[in-house]
Amino acid sequence: MASILHLEQPLAPVYDAESRILILGSFPSVKSRQSGFYYGHPQNRFWPLLARLLQTAAPTTIAEKQALLLRHRIALWDTLASCSIMGSCDSSIQDTVPSNLQPILRQAAIRQIFVNGQAAARFYRRYQQPLTGLTAIRLPSTSPANAAWTFDRLCEAWSVLLPYLKD
Predict the structure, then answer these.
(1) 46 pLDDT higher than 90
(2) What is the pLDDT at residue 123?
(3) For residue 167, what pLDDT is reported?
(4) Looking at domain 14-162, which of 1.20.120.450, 3.40.470.10, 3.30.2310.40, 3.90.660.20 is its CATH number?
(5) Is residue 5 classed exposed, middle or buried when 0-12, 13-18 and 19+ CB atoms within 10 A define those classes?
(6) Going edge to edge, which strands form the sheet with 137-139?
(7) What is the number of other CB atoms lying within 10 angstroms of the CB of residue 55?
(8) How confident is the model at residue 1 (pLDDT cuts 50, 70, 90)?
(9) What are phi and psi for residue 24, nearest 5 degrees?
């Protein structure tokens, strides 16, 4: 059984001055930490979902994933800078320290913040919303643990981010 470890956020945010939306997760999974990039579990539906919504090929390498995000003006990060966590289990998260979103919000013209799943929504509301004054839109988790949501249903729910990417 996995033990609870206190971990620092190992992944840098992805964004540039052209980013228009910010998608926040909670904290990188074990597979993401091992692969060195967000949504690294092969069954996580994040990358196939974005590819379908953006009508492009699903990225496979870190460079392709970063390019996809930046080309479509999407910033990506997590709500937590550090926490104690057991494996990849969001429900085990404790001893939380929030990420500082101010550098992203100062450098990019973010129109809307989206959170991927309930844990990210809870941490955003608790820590970042009082500082940013921005209400995030909670989207259903792309995690394979969220089996109640089919891929098509996820795509439909996540399509709410598309209007924010238009000029």
Answers:
(1) yes
(2) 98
(3) 78
(4) 3.40.470.10
(5) exposed
(6) 74-78, 21-25, 112-116, 137-139
(7) 6
(8) low
(9) -115, 130
